[in-house]
Amino acid sequence: MLLLILLMSSHKKEANKAKEDYLSVLDNCYKFAEEVIKNVDGVMSIVLFGSFVRKLSKKQSSDDTNDIDILILIDDLNVILDEEFVINYRNKIQSIANKYEKLHITTTRLSKFWELVIHSDPVMVSIVREGVPLFDSKIFVMFKKLLFNGHIKPTPEAIALQFNKARLGMDRAKNKAISLLIDIYWAVVDAFQSLAMYYKQLPKAPEDIAKQMLILKKEKKDFPLSKQDIEFFQELYDVTKRVMHRQKRKVEFYLLDEIEKRAEEIISKLNSFYNE
User: Fold this and answer.
1) Structural domains in the chain plus CATH codes
2) Smallest Cα–Cα separation from 178: which of 266, 241, 234?
C-alpha cells in the first residue's frame, strides 16, 4: 500500500513538472511572438510546431526537447522583401530569439507557403495540421480549415514532384556511395604505399601495388599483412577502376560495408606494426 502511495505521488510530481515545463516554454513562445509583432513589419502568422507540439498533445515532458520550432509567415504580397528588409528582418529576429532558449526560427514567404500547402508538401501539411498559432492574422487558421474540410488534396503534379524527390534522393545516395568507395580506395592505396616505403622501396602505382606486396611478403619475415589482404587490394583496385571508368555505375551498400571493414582491418594492422 505504501509503495502504491509512493508511486502515485511520484507520478503526480512528474505530471506537475511536465505541466510547469510546458507553461514555461509556452510563456516564452508567446513573449517571443509579442516582441516580433511589435518590432517587425510584414508578419502574417507566427506558429509553434514540431516535436514540442507533438509532445504537448501526448502530455509528455518537454525537458528533453532540443529545439522549439517556430514558423514565421511573411507577407510578400504587400511588403517589398528587398535586401534592406531581409537584413533588418534577420537582425531583429535573431536579437529577439537570443533572449529565449532553444528557439529555432523558420521564416517562409506567404506565397511560397501557399504554394507548398496546395501541392500537399508533407512538411508544410504537417505544420498546418499540428501547428499552434501564437499570432495569426486569420491566414494560418484558414489553411487549417481548408485542410480539415478536405480541400487540400494531393494533385497528380504534387505526387509526381514528391516521387521525383525520392528518385533524386536515391541518386544522391548512390553518388555518395561511389564517392565513399573512392575515398576508401585511396586510403588503402596510401596504406600499402607506406608499407613499401617502410621497406626502403619506392611506392608503386596502384596497378602494380599487389605485385610489389607479394614480392615483399616472400622476402620480409616481418611482413604484417596476409595474402588475403593483398588479394583484397587487387579486388578493390579492379572494382574502383571500373567505377572510375563508368563501367560500373552502382556500388551496392552491402559491398561498401564489407570493403570498409576490410580496409579498417588492414590500416589497423599497419598501425599496430608501425607502433611496435
Assistant:
1) 2-153 (3.30.460.10), 158-274 (no CATH)
2) 241
